[in-house]
Specification:
Number of domains: 1
CATH architecture: Sandwich
Shape: elongated
Number of helices: 2
Number of strands: 12
Order of helices and strands: EHHEEEEEEEEEEE
CATH topology: Immunoglobulin-like
Length: 150
């Protein structure tokens, strides 16, 4: 049985503002727009604030533990009319995770027990979208980093 505390990355979205923002951008410009209206927080209190560069967010995960990604709307006025949903976690299949599954709207990754991965970094993409009634935004990517600790 795994007794290690899971690592968590909570994504909070200013849904109304991001939904209504210009999202037909590409590359860095789209990332800057997403960064403006998203906040990332780990279970140890570290994170990337609204407007911070999400690609600079590094989450430490423990060898043989779990990683949990979740998403929610901010408490901004008007956000209650929106929903945010995780679509996928895209990693490089480097071996960091034995498997990644979707559970109750969150993604859960089983971290490898291979000690060769200690202190190695991983870039990956979290894809999500915003809904307002029958309207759906384009898929929005966030690109933080991971590092495995013993």
């Amino acid at each position: 049985m795994n007794t290690k505390e899971p690592s968590r990355l909570q994504i909070k979205v200013k849904a109304k503002q991001l939904f209504n923002a210009q999202l037909n951008l590409k590359g860095e410009k789209l990332q800057e727009k997403i960064d403006q209206f998203t906040e990332l927080t780990t279970n140890n209190g570290l994170g990337s604030p609204y407007g911070g560069k999400n690609k600079d967010q590094n989450t430490d995960i423990q060898l043989g533990s779990k990683m949990i990604w979740s998403i929610s709307i901010s408490k901004e006025k008007g956000d209650e009319d929106y929903a945010v949903l995780l679509d996928s976690i895209v990693n490089s299949n480097s071996g960091f995770f034995n498997k990644i599954t979707k559970e109750n709207g969150n993604f859960v990754g089983e971290v490898t027990t291979n000690r060769d991965f200690i202190d190695k970094g991983e870039e990956y993409i979290i894809n999500f979208h915003i809904q307002k009634g029958d309207e759906t935004s384009v898929v929005l990517p966030i690109d933080p980093r991971l590092k495995i600790k013993p």
